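[step 3/7] fold_predict: job queued, chain A
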Amino acid sequence: MRLDTSQKIVGFLASIEYYGLGLDYMDRYPGLINAVTAAEVQRVAQKHLDPDRYAPAVVADPTRVKVKE
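[step 4/7] structure written:
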């Protein structure tokens, strides 16, 4: 969370209110993120991502990485 300006803080608080997350959401946020398991990520990815409809991209130093095509 980047809350380094008043505008970002106001936007964050507005989102918390809009979605009904509660004023303790900022304190609970790290625990919520840490509670997500790899299995849950895989399950959601399989449900919502179609590998035939995207193109992978690799960002690396080409002198140090060997990419198979």
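[step 5/7] annotate
The CA atoms of residues 3 and 9 lie 5 Å apart.
The two ends are 37 Å apart (CA to CA).
exit 0
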